Amino acid sequence: MTRLTRSARGGEGALARRLYAWEDAVIAPRDRSRVPFAQLQALVDHVWAAEGLRYPPRVRSLPRGARRTMARATRLAIEAPAELPSWVLLHELAHAMTSTAEGDNDGHGPAFVGIYLRLLVRHARLDEAVLARSLAEAGIAYDPTARPVFLD
Description:
The protein has five helices and five strands, in the order αβαββββααα. By secondary structure, it is mainly α. The protein has helices spanning 14-27, 37-50, 86-97, 110-123, 128-138, and strands at 34-36, 58-61, 72-73, 77-80, 83-85. The longest helix has 14 residues, at 14-27. The protein is globular and about 35 Å long. The chain has a single domain (19-138), classed as Zincin-like, CATH 3.30.2010. A three-stranded mixed β-sheet has the order 2-4-3, with helices on one face. Strands 1-5 form a two-stranded antiparallel ribbon.
Protein backbone atom coordinates (compact mmCIF):
# COMPACT_ATOMS: atom_id res chain seq x y z
CA MET A 1 0.00 0.00 0.00
CA THR A 2 1.21 3.48 -0.86
CA ARG A 3 1.94 5.74 2.08
CA LEU A 4 0.08 9.01 1.65
CA THR A 5 0.76 12.35 3.25
CA ARG A 6 -0.98 15.67 3.33
CA SER A 7 1.64 17.77 1.58
CA ALA A 8 2.00 21.49 2.02
CA ARG A 9 0.82 23.59 -0.91
CA GLY A 10 3.68 24.34 -3.26
CA GLY A 11 5.83 21.73 -2.19
CA GLU A 12 8.39 19.15 -2.08
CA GLY A 13 11.43 21.12 -3.07
CA ALA A 14 14.26 19.14 -4.63
CA LEU A 15 12.11 16.15 -5.62
CA ALA A 16 9.65 18.32 -7.56
CA ARG A 17 12.44 20.34 -9.18
CA ARG A 18 14.18 17.14 -10.31
CA LEU A 19 10.92 15.80 -11.80
CA TYR A 20 10.16 19.11 -13.56
CA ALA A 21 13.68 19.19 -15.03
CA TRP A 22 13.19 15.60 -16.28
CA GLU A 23 9.88 16.58 -17.88
CA ASP A 24 11.48 19.58 -19.60
CA ALA A 25 14.38 17.49 -20.91
CA VAL A 26 12.63 14.21 -21.76
CA ILE A 27 8.84 14.59 -22.03
CA ALA A 28 8.22 18.05 -23.49
CA PRO A 29 10.43 17.49 -26.58
CA ARG A 30 8.65 14.18 -27.31
CA ASP A 31 5.08 15.43 -26.90
CA ARG A 32 4.35 18.86 -28.31
CA SER A 33 0.57 18.39 -28.52
CA ARG A 34 -1.66 20.93 -26.79
CA VAL A 35 -5.26 20.60 -25.68
CA PRO A 36 -7.68 23.56 -25.64
CA PHE A 37 -9.67 24.01 -22.43
CA ALA A 38 -12.96 23.13 -24.18
CA GLN A 39 -11.60 19.61 -24.88
CA LEU A 40 -9.92 18.91 -21.54
CA GLN A 41 -12.91 17.33 -19.78
CA ALA A 42 -13.48 14.89 -22.64
CA LEU A 43 -9.82 13.86 -22.52
CA VAL A 44 -9.90 13.51 -18.72
CA ASP A 45 -13.03 11.35 -19.00
CA HIS A 46 -11.42 9.19 -21.69
CA VAL A 47 -8.17 8.58 -19.80
CA TRP A 48 -10.03 7.95 -16.53
CA ALA A 49 -12.31 5.36 -18.17
CA ALA A 50 -9.41 3.75 -20.05
CA GLU A 51 -7.71 3.24 -16.67
CA GLY A 52 -10.83 1.42 -15.44
CA LEU A 53 -11.91 4.21 -13.11
CA ARG A 54 -15.23 5.92 -12.49
CA TYR A 55 -16.08 9.46 -11.34
CA PRO A 56 -13.31 11.50 -13.02
CA PRO A 57 -12.21 14.83 -11.61
CA ARG A 58 -13.97 17.90 -13.00
CA VAL A 59 -11.98 20.35 -15.08
CA ARG A 60 -12.27 23.99 -14.13
CA SER A 61 -10.41 27.18 -14.97
CA LEU A 62 -7.17 27.91 -13.21
CA PRO A 63 -7.69 31.03 -11.07
CA ARG A 64 -6.38 34.18 -12.72
CA GLY A 65 -4.05 34.84 -9.80
CA ALA A 66 -2.20 31.55 -10.29
CA ARG A 67 1.07 32.76 -11.78
CA ARG A 68 3.59 30.14 -10.65
CA THR A 69 1.70 27.03 -11.71
CA MET A 70 0.80 25.64 -15.12
CA ALA A 71 -2.08 23.52 -13.75
CA ARG A 72 -3.00 21.72 -10.53
CA ALA A 73 -5.06 18.75 -9.48
CA THR A 74 -6.73 17.01 -6.60
CA ARG A 75 -8.80 13.84 -6.62
CA LEU A 76 -11.90 15.92 -7.35
CA ALA A 77 -10.75 18.67 -9.72
CA ILE A 78 -8.15 19.68 -12.27
CA GLU A 79 -7.56 23.40 -12.70
CA ALA A 80 -6.15 24.39 -16.08
CA PRO A 81 -5.54 27.45 -18.27
CA ALA A 82 -7.02 28.10 -21.72
CA GLU A 83 -4.66 25.56 -23.30
CA LEU A 84 -2.46 22.84 -21.82
CA PRO A 85 0.25 20.53 -23.16
CA SER A 86 -1.15 17.00 -23.14
CA TRP A 87 1.73 15.69 -21.02
CA VAL A 88 0.90 18.28 -18.34
CA LEU A 89 -2.68 17.01 -18.31
CA LEU A 90 -1.36 13.45 -17.82
CA HIS A 91 0.85 14.77 -14.99
CA GLU A 92 -2.21 16.29 -13.32
CA LEU A 93 -4.23 13.10 -13.86
CA ALA A 94 -1.47 11.17 -12.10
CA HIS A 95 -1.87 13.57 -9.16
CA ALA A 96 -5.62 12.97 -9.17
CA MET A 97 -5.04 9.20 -9.16
CA THR A 98 -2.63 9.41 -6.23
CA SER A 99 -4.86 11.67 -4.13
CA THR A 100 -7.88 11.04 -1.97
CA ALA A 101 -10.97 13.23 -1.66
CA GLU A 102 -9.71 14.14 1.82
CA GLY A 103 -6.49 15.62 0.42
CA ASP A 104 -3.97 12.89 1.20
CA ASN A 105 -1.52 12.38 -1.67
CA ASP A 106 1.82 11.01 -2.81
CA GLY A 107 3.13 14.37 -4.02
CA HIS A 108 5.79 13.60 -6.63
CA GLY A 109 6.76 10.33 -4.96
CA PRO A 110 7.28 6.86 -6.43
CA ALA A 111 3.56 6.02 -6.70
CA PHE A 112 2.85 9.28 -8.55
CA VAL A 113 5.79 8.78 -10.92
CA GLY A 114 4.79 5.15 -11.55
CA ILE A 115 1.26 6.11 -12.53
CA TYR A 116 2.50 9.08 -14.57
CA LEU A 117 4.91 6.81 -16.45
CA ARG A 118 2.09 4.40 -17.25
CA LEU A 119 -0.13 7.25 -18.48
CA LEU A 120 2.66 8.61 -20.70
CA VAL A 121 3.18 5.17 -22.23
CA ARG A 122 -0.51 4.36 -22.73
CA HIS A 123 -1.89 7.73 -23.71
CA ALA A 124 1.01 9.73 -25.15
CA ARG A 125 2.53 6.60 -26.70
CA LEU A 126 6.00 7.30 -25.36
CA ASP A 127 8.55 4.48 -25.12
CA GLU A 128 8.53 2.90 -21.66
CA ALA A 129 12.16 1.73 -21.78
CA VAL A 130 13.39 5.20 -22.76
CA LEU A 131 11.36 6.82 -19.97
CA ALA A 132 12.44 4.27 -17.33
CA ARG A 133 16.10 4.67 -18.29
CA SER A 134 15.87 8.46 -18.22
CA LEU A 135 14.16 8.39 -14.81
CA ALA A 136 16.98 6.22 -13.44
CA GLU A 137 19.59 8.57 -14.93
CA ALA A 138 17.83 11.52 -13.28
CA GLY A 139 17.73 9.71 -9.93
CA ILE A 140 13.92 9.68 -9.82
CA ALA A 141 12.37 6.64 -8.14
CA TYR A 142 9.10 5.16 -9.35
CA ASP A 143 6.83 2.28 -8.45
CA PRO A 144 5.98 0.29 -11.60
CA THR A 145 3.15 -1.45 -9.71
CA ALA A 146 1.49 1.77 -8.49
CA ARG A 147 -2.29 1.95 -8.74
CA PRO A 148 -4.79 4.68 -7.88
CA VAL A 149 -5.08 5.09 -4.13
CA PHE A 150 -8.86 5.30 -3.87
CA LEU A 151 -11.75 2.99 -4.49
CA ASP A 152 -14.59 4.19 -6.71
